Amino acid sequence: MCYNVLCDKYATRQMYGYCPSWALDWEYRKKGILDEIRHYAADIISLQEVETDQFYNFFLPELKHDGYDGIFSPKSRAKTMAENDRKYVDGCAIFYRTAKFSLIKEHLVEFNQLAMANAEGSDNMLNRVMPKDNIGLAALLRTKEAAWDNGVPSDPAQVQQPILVCTAHIHWDPEFCDVKLIQTMMLSNELRSILDQAGQSFRPGHKPDSSNVQLLLCGDFNSLPDSGVIEFLTSGRVAADHRDFKDLAYKSCLQKISGCDKPNEFTHSFKLASAYSEDIMPYTNYTFEFKGIIDYIFYSKQSMVPLGLLGPLSPEWFKEAKVVGCPHPHVPSDHFPLLVELEMTPTVGTSNGLISRR
After folding, report:
1. Which long-range contacts does 69-75 make (Cβ < 8 Å, 24+ apart)?
2. Which domains does the chain have, with CATH numbers?
C-alpha cells in the first residue's frame, strides 16, 4: 500500500476551501486514514507526509496493535530545528507485518546531501537541487515462512528472501521538473548501492548481484506519466537533453550520480514495472485545481507478478456527491491509497553458485 496522508499543516482552508473545516481537522481525518489502512490490511505500507509526532504517537502505536512495526524519517530540515518544532516536520514511513517480515536494515536517502556531494561546481545543482530537502526511505526486509501465502518454498534456504522496500516524496513544484528528475536519479543510484550491499550480504563470497534482491519502490513522485521521472524509472533511461532538464548545465554532475559512461543518456539497470496504468487509475491526486496521476508503485518485474490491485473511486459517486476535490468528509486525504497484490518468485540456487529465478 502506498498512501500520501496529507500532513495537517498543509491541510489549510486556503488550499482546500471546498472542504468543511471540521472535515479538514486532523483529529477527524486521521480516523478515516487509519480506517482505510486497517480495511485494506496490506503486508507492507508506505506513507508520505507523515508528521513526526503523529508517527510516534499515533500511527506506530496504533499499527503495532495490528501486528506491524515501522520506520520513519522526517525531511532533512528537522536536523536544524528545535525539538518542539521538529515534531511537526513531515516525512516518510514504512510499516511491515512482523509475522511475515523482519527488518534487516533501514536506509535514509537525503537528496540535499547528495546534491551537495555531487555538485561538481554546478550553480544549478547548488541553487536549485540542494535547497530541496525531500527524502527517500528504504527498509531491507527478510521474508518469514508466513509471507508465502501460496505455499512455502520446498528449499528452506529459499524461505528467507530479501526484499528492499523504498518510499519517497519527490519535490512538488512543476517549475522544478529538473529537480524532480535529478532527485529520482539520485534515489536510483542510492538504491543500486543498497541492493549491491544486500546482494553481497545474502551471498557472501560472490560478486555483488542486486538482482538477487527484490525491489518495491513506491511513493509520491509528484510527476505525471509522461514526465522524465516516470520515463527514467520505467524504461531504465532518460536522454541527457530531456526537456525536463530545462537545458541547464547538469551533465557532469549527472554522469557522476548515475555512474553511466554513455554521453547522450543516463540509465539504470532496474527492471521496474508500474502496478497501475492510466486506463486503470485516471488520477491519484484529486483537488479542485489539479487531478492527475502522481503516486506510483513500481516492482521488480523479473521477480514479482501482480495478481490484483485497488481501482479508483467511482466517477459516478463524484458526480452524484458533487465532489469537486478532496479532502472530503468521506475522503480523508487529497491523495487516494494505491494497493497492489504481488506474488514473489523464490530464488533457486544453481550448481555454479549463481542465483536464478523459477
Report:
1. 69/95, 69/96, 69/98, 69/103, 70/45, 70/94, 70/95, 70/96, 71/103, 71/106, 71/137, 71/139, 72/137, 73/108, 73/135, 73/137, 74/135, 75/133, 75/134, 75/135
2. 2-344 (3.60.10.10)
- Rounded to the nearest 5 percent, the helix, strand and coil shares of the chain are 35, 30, 40
Catalytic residue, chosen from 178, 220, 244, 334, is 220
- Which amino acid belongs to residue 326? C
Residues 177 and 227: beta-carbon distance below 8 Å: yes
Clarify whether 220 is annotated catalytic: yes
Q: Which amino acid is at 169?
A: H
324, three cell numbers: 469537486
Q: Which residues of the chain have a pLDDT value below 70?
A: 203-211, 347-358
Full-model pTM: 0.94
- Given this model, what pLDDT does residue 354 score? 37
Pairing outcome for strands 101-110 and 90-97: unpaired
pLDDT in tens, 157-170: 788 899 999 999 99
pLDDT at 203: 66
Residue 203 neighbours by CB distance under 10 Å: 19
